[in-house]
Amino acid sequence: MQKFLEGKLEVLKRIFKQGHDLKVLWLPKQHRLVELGGERYLLSGEVVGSNIRIYESTKNKAIDTLVHEFTEHLIKEHFSKPYVMLLNVLTSALQSTAYKEQEEVIKALTEQLLKMPEVQKIIEKEVEPDCRDGTRTREGDKAEK
Ligand SMILES: [Zn+2]
Predict the structure, then answer these.
(1) Residues 6 or more apart from 93 whose CB is under 8 A from it?
(2) Can you give the residue ranges of every domain in the chain?
(3) How far is the CA of 72 from the centre of ligand 1 (A)?
(4) Ligand 1 centre and the CA of 22: distance in Å?
(5) CA 113 to centroid of ligand 1, rounded, Å
(6) pLDDT tens-digit readout, 32-74
């Protein structure tokens, strides 16, 4: 699984031409509990320094988390760092709201990203044969014959 995730991370780096300093660490069932503005969140993964830590144990959840954290890292690095710095001086309640909103946006972005044919094609290609779901039909199936 560690090697599998490392392969996927390389795919994401190639697609986005970003995040070349990132590494992935698979830490199954070591979910970290965080408290923000009085609410508790159980993390599926997080970026600590240049490590993407994945706490999910199943393959599908782990890959979703990897894409989510990779996307979140790029967005934070390039767009929201100044805003995060600003937010740090505001109340914890506001931080909690901002966190939730940010998570919603990243969730939507990740979902759309995973639907893109280009991404599916590349991710799919490197999926190990034992975890392929042969019962599903996809748009690309017709063209392949
Ligand atoms: Zn997130």
Answers:
(1) 37, 38
(2) 2-127
(3) 6
(4) 16
(5) 15
(6) 998 877 888 899 999 999 999 999 999 989 999 999 999 888 8
